[in-house]
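User: Reviewer 2 asked us to show a designed sequence for the structure in our supplementary figure. I'm pasting the structure tokens here. Could you produce the per-position amino acids so we can include them in the response letter?
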């Protein structure tokens, strides 16, 4: 058992002992929470269990704390102190800390990978942008946060599948075809700008697509009927846009297990889902249309799923898609959407419940807006096209590593101000540079050690690590796997971004305080062992974030 588990069990046994002796009344124990205090003088671990249980035990928290501490014993414990209104601070014997570091050393490259969880698979669907143009910075935030969430859940032992839902059916794809068709005719002198489709896409990439069609095939499509020509352009444009989208995501270290085409839902799966809901009484007909009885499941009004024209709404496809997700055996379905989809959550959850599934098994995470800042000023438009800044442009300007870290370092539900100047700077003020520099420094130490024929022994004397910065670094390392567990459970990959930054800070403090080479061999070996584990933790954390861990900078 890890020391935190041992300590939690000791607190629980002390409370149960007091209950058995009649000192505390019979009551259910609250969840025991252990934290690492912000200052070393406050102990190695602290708990507020005395305050949490005051109501249940009908006693003053300090009296509860005194009774608990009297009953907690262990050869791992140096002393216990009670602070403030009833905080209990635990001071561990030094050998416990060193044993913990030795255990991390034994894990080697497996440090950071938790045991597999015995549970139904989890699906995370994210980005899912319409394949009608390039990805913009908002999509980039979703790509970074979504892939980091998948990575941290896998590290925590969850069986996870990542999925991209390709919106390749419906009006947006028809509008794409109309847009390419008009630009094609325009470039060949057969149409004018003023007649551009009302809901068409004005991006420069549409002109590029039309130019590529002309370069390859010339005017061979002019003699076709418009419907025939647009049918061809729809497939050509969709294939091209999807390929570009995949290329941008690949360059952004974002890869999907499944690319799910919306077209595969039409017509059979959409019709089957609607028929199922009609048969169980959750779809009714009114004014020639079919309506989902979503008010029965918490929505503010019923929703049309099949229009009076017979055309399915977007919700109809979503109902079929979510039914298919659960039918594929996923026990938990996580969708990451833009904040503008907030009002859509209730109707999708209503549909899930109407289908007979538990709506609590669907979690929707909302991404807030990204504001790009340069020189303290808001950047709204692309320098090249005068339109929204694309993800590819952002990668070109600041690089994948900085872009991903900056997107992930704040929680998804908070607005993000992305400082382009800071992201490009090579200074300790840039958090991703600060973390990567810690790893590069360690690699430099390894190279120097190799030149001096110095390496970590099989059993280094870790008890020689007595400096405050060494102990702080060891304690921080022992928190890593707990951070992974919490980040996965809370859908909070930003916890790993913050942890990596704090770990780098602990390392830099240690590096500035303690010489690693040029000291007595046994001490050097112990310190090399410490930085070996540190390097593994930094590499692993950066891997979760999709950020590189350079060996030289």
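Assistant: Here is a per-position design you can include in the supplement:
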């Amino acid at each position: 058992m890890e020391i935190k588990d041992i300590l939690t069990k000791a607190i629980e046994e002390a409370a149960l002992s007091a209950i058995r002796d009649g000192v505390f009344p019979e009551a259910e124990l609250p969840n025991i929470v252990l934290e690492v205090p912000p200052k070393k003088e406050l102990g190695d671990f602290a708990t507020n269990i005395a305050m949490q249980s005051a109501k249940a035990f009908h006693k003053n928290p300090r009296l509860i704390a005194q009774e608990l501490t009297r009953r907690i014993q262990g050869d791992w414990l140096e002393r216990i102190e009670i602070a403030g209104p009833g905080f209990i601070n635990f001071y561990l014997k030094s050998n416990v800390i060193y044993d913990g570091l030795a255990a991390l050393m034994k894990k080697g490259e497996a440090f950071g990978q938790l045991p597999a969880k015995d549970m139904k698979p989890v699906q995370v669907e994210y980005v899912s942008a319409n394949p009608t143009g390039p990805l913009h910075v908002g999509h980039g935030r979703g790509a970074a946060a979504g892939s980091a969430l998948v990575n941290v859940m896998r590290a925590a032992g969850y069986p996870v599948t990542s999925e991209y839902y390709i919106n390749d059916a419906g009006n947006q794809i028809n509008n794409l075809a109309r847009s390419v068709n008009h630009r094609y005719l325009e470039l060949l002198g057969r149409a004018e700008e003023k007649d551009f489709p009302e809901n068409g896409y004005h991006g420069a990439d549409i002109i590029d697509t039309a130019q590529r069609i002309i370069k390859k095939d010339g005017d061979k499509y002019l003699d076709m009927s418009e419907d025939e020509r647009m049918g061809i352009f729809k497939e050509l444009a969709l294939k091209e846009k999807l390929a570009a989208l995949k290329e941008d995501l690949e360059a952004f270290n974002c890869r999907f297990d499944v690319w799910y085409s919306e077209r595969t839902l039409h017509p059979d799966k959409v019709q089957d889902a609607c028929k199922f809901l009609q048969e169980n009484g959750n779809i009714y007909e009114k004014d020639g249309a079919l309506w989902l009885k979503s008010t029965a499941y918490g929505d503010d009004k019923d929703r049309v799923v099949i229009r009076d024209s017979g055309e399915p709404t977007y919700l109809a496809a979503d109902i079929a898609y979510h039914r298919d997700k659960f039918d594929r055996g996923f026990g938990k379905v996580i969708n990451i959407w833009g904040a503008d989809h907030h009002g859509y959550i209730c109707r999708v959850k209503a549909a899930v419940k109407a289908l007979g599934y538990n709506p609590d098994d669907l979690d929707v995470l909302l991404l807030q807006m990204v504001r790009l800042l340069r020189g303290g000023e808001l950047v709204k438009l692309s320098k090249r096209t005068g339109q929204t800044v694309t993800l590819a442009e952002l990668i070109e300007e600041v690089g994948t590593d900085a872009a991903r870290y900056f997107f992930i370092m704040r929680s998804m539900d908070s607005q993000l101000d992305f400082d382009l100047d800071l992201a490009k700077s090579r200074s300790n003020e840039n958090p991703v540079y600060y973390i990567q520099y810690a790893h590069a420094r360690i690699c430099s130490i390894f190279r120097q050690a190799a030149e001096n024929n110095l390496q970590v022994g099989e059993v280094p004397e870790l008890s020689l690590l007595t400096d405050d910065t060494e102990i702080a670094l060891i304690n921080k390392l022992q928190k890593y796997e707990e951070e992974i567990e919490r980040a996965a459970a809370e859908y909070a990959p930003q916890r790993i971004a913050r942890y990596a930054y704090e770990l780098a800070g602990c390392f830099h403090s240690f590096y500035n305080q303690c010489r690693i080479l040029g000291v007595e061999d046994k001490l050097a070996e112990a310190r090399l062992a410490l930085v070996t584990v540190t390097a593994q933790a930094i590499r692993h954390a950066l891997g979760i974030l999709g950020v590189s861990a350079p060996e030289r900078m």
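For the response letter, you might also mention the following. The chain has a mean pLDDT of 95. The chain has 20 helices and 15 strands.
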